[in-house]
Amino acid sequence: MVHKRLKFLRKQKGLKQEDLAKILSTDVSSYSRKENGKSKIYDGEWEKLARALDVSVDDIKKSEDPVIIHLSNSIIENLQDYITFLKYENEDLRTELEKLKNK
């Protein structure tokens, strides 16, 4: 879970594995193994990663799953418009169904 969170935070900041590898003075392959939990991340490395990600070490290591959804206002507005459209469509279909039942 910790490693998933590390990867999530890295991507959220728009950083590449290469960027964090440089901060840890290692190559991308070694960093990738650390991020994927195949290699140990030492305390000093956690500190460097936290600084690079602008979070605390505890924020990286906290156990909750990072579910953060960023939707622009236009996407939200489009979805709301579509919901409204579907409500009208649903009402029209109900009306048509009632007409067919009454025949």
UniProtKB/TrEMBL annotation:
Q: Which organism is it from?
A: Chryseobacterium hagamense
The terms under GO molecular function for this entry are:
DNA binding
> Entry's InterPro entries?
Cro/C1-type_HTH, Lambda_DNA-bd_dom_sf
Q: Which domain of life is it from?
A: Bacteria
Q: What is this protein called?
A: HTH cro/C1-type domain-containing protein
Q: Where is the HTH cro/C1-type domain?
A: 6-60
- Matching SMART domains, A to Z? HTH_XRE
Q: Which CDD domains match?
A: HTH_XRE
Looking at the Swiss-Prot or TrEMBL record, what is one Pfam family this protein matches? HTH_3
Question: Which parts form a coiled-coil structure per UniProt?
Answer: 76-103
